[in-house]
Amino acid sequence: MLSRQQVRHYQEQGYLALESLLPKPATESIRHAATRIVDAFDIDAHRTVFSTQDRDRGRDRYFMDSAEAVHCFLEERALDPAGKLLGPKHLAINKIGHAMHDLVPEFTAFCRQPVFAEILRDLGYRVPILWQTMYIFKQPRIGGEVRWHQDASYLITQPPCVTGIWVAIEDARRDNSCLWLHPGGHRSPLREIYRVDPATREGTLQPLDDTPWPGAADAVALEVPAGSVVLFHDHMPHYSSANQSRHSRHAFTMHVAEQDAEWPDCNWIQRPRLGDFRL
């Protein structure tokens, strides 16, 4: 699936963008499935906000339980100070996570496309296991900033071996808050780690290294058309700004690890009921 040059680019730069790789019917299938999930979501029962501005202190039981479920999370700016919804429900959702690949047929079929397994094996995986999936809306006007971070801070393996697969469901541009990353930044140290107490299911983001996050001179905008697939090394710093535009930026992400890697019980995501999802 990947050329030697593409594999070398991923190894040297820490990411690889495969533009317009997927056909529109494939991405539209999960877009429609995500819409159906939001339509059925009882927003009065669950108003958990997803934000990265609180150093992950807002990870409640509803969030932790989403490891084996399909839960909707709200944009911070979708609610007023009293918790009242400021606009339509379908424009209030930040993301859906984190077990759609197990529980929603359209997402299962999408993730089972041979192209993903072929790409991962070209990168050296023997038995890639899909741990989590997220459908991200990046809503117009209120889509929240996702601060600089590294995936290995939240998905801990020994040895480190997580790869992020980011799929553009809509065109991603600077004006609607595309991703930014630091080419070669995967060789930088892990700056922080999110550990969860297995007994209480409470997590804490802990500093590890004071290396600065990338600045304007280092960051590169990943502007890609719908249907593109971007691969990320788990130490690659990446970021997206708040979406101030009139256009959403839907995306779908998958995170995989090698089956024989150690997955500690301090990881927030645990899947004892669902088991392994092999690609």
Plain-language structure description:
By secondary structure, the protein is α+β, with helices and mostly antiparallel strands. The chain has helices spanning 4-13, 24-40, 61-65, 100-103, 105-111, 114-122, and strands at residues 15-18, 70-74, 93-98, 128-136, 146-149, 163-168, 179-181, 192-196, 203-207, 220-222, 229-233, 238-240, 251-258. It has one domain: q2cbj1_9rhob like domain (Jelly Rolls), CATH 2.60.120. Helices cover 19% and strands 24% of the residues. The strands form three sheets. The chain has a seven-stranded antiparallel beta sheet. Strands 5-12-7-10 form a four-stranded antiparallel beta sheet, with no helix packed on it. Strands 8-9 form a two-stranded antiparallel sheet.
Supply database-style keywords:
single chain; 279 residues; alpha+beta; Jelly Rolls; 4-stranded antiparallel sheet; 6 helices; 19% helix; 24% strand; globular
